[in-house]
Amino acid sequence: MFLVVLAGGSLAGAGDAVPRDANLHRCMSADARSGQISSEEKTAERVFVRFFSCVTARADHDRRRCNTFTAEALQRLYHLEDLYEEDRSFVDTSELATKIKAPRSGWILLGKAESQHVLREAKRRVESGHPTIALLLNSRGEGHVALVLPGDLQRSPKWNDVLTPNSASFPHTTPAQSFIGCKLSYAFPDPKGVSVYYRPKRE
Q1: Per-position b or e across 51-85, b if 16+ CB within 10 A of its CB
Q2: 57/38 Cα distance (integer angstroms)
Q3: In sequence order, what E strands does 84-161 have?
Q4: Are 90 and 72 a contacting pair, CB within 8 Å?
Q5: Which pLDDT belongs to residue 133?
Q6: CB neighbours of 45 closer than 8 A, spacing ≥ 6?
Q7: Domain locations along the chain
Q8: What are the beta bridge partners of residue 164?
Q9: Which residue, among 11, 24, 3, 13, has the nearest Cα to 175 in the 3D structure?
């Protein structure tokens, strides 16, 4: 068990701890988590610690090797077997976004993140055990994928006051914007262009 103190908040899980002076997203202290933390969030925490260790160790180097932890988190959470390269390394986030959007990927589009109905449905799907994500993919094939996690909806003023689900985000190019257990709107500055998908769970 580790306990990471984050300016008044805490992060509990198993494995090596994030350094106490880690430059994490401000939401991890401003939006202190309350109540029961889901098993999904605890699993994602373990991946988050490994992600942050990667970007910290490569602070002055190419961080592209740290761009696979979103796929790893999905695999650890839901045992998905199509998130690997041929050498069994995890796909990077842009490739993950491309795979999710592809026809016959197994992922189902819920809709756009601008919709309150879609955000409520994302919460319902993930709490029913379905892998659920939000993604943004630009015309150059560069993308970001955030995990939707079980937890309360939280109001987001910068997303026009919609209620947004709990989430985790591992951006390797801007690790100071990484977080776990904060509202989805922290992962994307604007909901425009952000799509929400889920994948039916295995029965």
Answers
A1: bbbbbeeeeeeebeebbbbbbbbbbebbeeeebee
A2: 29
A3: 108-112, 132-137, 143-156
A4: yes
A5: 98
A6: 11, 12, 13, 180
A7: 2-198
A8: 154
A9: 24
**Cβ atoms within 10 A of the Cβ of 112, count?**
15
As a whole number of angstroms, the distance between CA 197 and CA 135 comes to 8
Task: Give the Cα-Cα-Cα angle 99, 154, 72 (nearest 5 degrees).
Answer: 30
pTM assigned to the model? 0.85
Per-residue pLDDT tens digits for 30-47: 655 555 788 998 899 999
CATH homologous superfamily of 2-198? endopeptidase domain like (from Nostoc punctiforme) (3.90.1720.10)
User: Exposed, middle or buried, 35 (CB in 10 Å: 0-12/13-18/19+)?
Assistant: exposed
d(CA 60, CA 125) in angstroms, rounded, equals 39
Tens digits of residue pLDDT in 105-133: 999 999 999 999 999 999 999 999 999 99
Please choose, from the candidates 123, 132, 142, 140, the residue with its C-alpha nearest in 3D space to the C-alpha of residue 195.
132
pLDDT band at 172 (very low <50, low <70, confident <90, very high): confident
pLDDT digits (tens, 9 = 90+) for 62-84: 777 889 999 999 999 999 999 99
CB 9 within 8 A of CB 34: no
